[in-house]
């Protein structure tokens, strides 16, 4: 599990709960079944309208991406590509075919297969850039689902509060229950604003962050594949790919290659 995501969620919810206790309230006062049904049912329904069934089915997978730890290791990727460049210069591109079975990344594997098959460099770039574009589009749609929910949540909370106040105003004769009823009505707004800012929008931000990391790796991969195909000097390949990384990360790769 991604400790940062879990810790952030716990911290956000914990801070809200703690503020209630510090003000002398009770946690039980925050629970309201009608408000829960209105806000989360309404948010789910409104969000569903804007997306296809196939896109909505990816929600469990998207939550897994947000809450599971995943390392994007550009260091090993660059070392691998530089190794391919060295082997290609010594033995030719066809010699890289024996390395295909060891490649786990589908994007890298597809690109290397195109190169080994003798595909024109411009066509390789076109195919891989198209692949990259549609990967970005899928990632965008995934984050958009949670952004939409984050937008509808507060609105549903307001609707729930208005509905609650309508009920309260219809029973003004019961003065002793007026205060608690108004407080209960506003819980819907709390649910809507809270869910949007503690869960839906942060998850969307996490998915965007994961996407940007993966896209960066794919861009490094594409540049490396084309350099291998062009027969560039391994040192030049390394310098090209290091340009994608922060200075600190570049130093660790150079140290690793020096040790080799």
Can you characterise this structure?
The chain is elongated. It folds into two domains: 1-30, no CATH class; 32-260, no CATH class. Helix content is 78%, strand content 0%. The protein has ten helices and no strands. The chain starts with a helix and ends with a helix. Helix 6 (106-116) packs parallel to helix 8 and helix 7 (121-169) packs antiparallel against helix 8 (178-230). The mean pLDDT is 88. The chain is mainly α and 260 residues long.
Brief characterization of the structure:
The chain is mainly α. 78% of the residues lie in helices and 0% in strands. The protein is elongated.
SSE blueprint and pairings:
Layout: H1 3-22, H2 33-49, H3 53-56, H4 59-67, H5 74-91, H6 106-116, H7 121-169, H8 178-230, H9 234-242, H10 247-259
- Structural class, please? mainly alpha
Measured as a percent range, the helix fraction is: over 70%
Counted by DSSP, the helix tally is: 10
Biggest β-sheet description: none
Shape: elongated
* Range of strand content: under 5%
How many beta-strand segments?
0
Structural domain tally: 2
Q: Tell me the series of helices and strands, N- to C-terminal.
A: HHHHHHHHHH
The radius of gyration computed from the alpha-carbon positions, rounded to a whole number of angstroms, is: 26 Å
User: What is the CA–CA distance across the termini?
Assistant: 33 Å
The average pLDDT score comes to 88
Low-pLDDT segments, ≥5 res: none
Observed structural traits:
260 residues; 10 helices; mainly alpha
């Amino acid at each position: 599990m991604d400790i940062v995501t879990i810790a952030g969620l716990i911290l956000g919810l914990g801070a809200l709960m703690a503020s209630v206790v510090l003000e002398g309230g009770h946690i039980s006062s925050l629970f309201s079944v009608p408000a829960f049904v209105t806000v989360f049912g309404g948010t789910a329904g409104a969000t569903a309208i804007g997306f296809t069934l196939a896109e909505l089915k990816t929600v469990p997978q998207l939550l897994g991406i947000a809450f599971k730890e995943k390392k994007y290791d550009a260091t090993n990727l660059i070392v691998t590509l530089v190794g391919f460049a060295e082997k290609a210069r010594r033995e030719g591109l066809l010699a890289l075919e024996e390395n295909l079975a060891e490649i786990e990344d589908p994007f890298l594997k597809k690109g290397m297969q195109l190169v080994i098959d003798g595909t024109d460099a411009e066509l390789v770039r076109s195919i891989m850039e198209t692949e990259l574009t549609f990967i970005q589009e899928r990632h965008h749609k995934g984050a958009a689902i949670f952004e939409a929910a984050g937008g509808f949540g507060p609105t549903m909370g307001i609707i729930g509060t208005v509905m609650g106040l309508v009920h309260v105003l219809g029973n003004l004769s019961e003065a002793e229950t007026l205060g608690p009823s108004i407080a209960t009505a506003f819980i819907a707004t709390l649910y809507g604003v809270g869910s949007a800012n503690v869960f839906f929008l942060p998850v969307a931000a996490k998915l965007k962050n994961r996407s940007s990391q993966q896209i960066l790796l794919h861009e490094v991969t594409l540049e490396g594949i084309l350099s291998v195909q062009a027969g560039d000097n391994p040192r030049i390949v390394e310098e090209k790919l290091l340009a994608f990384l922060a200075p600190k990360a570049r130093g660790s790769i150079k140290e690793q290659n020096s040790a080799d």
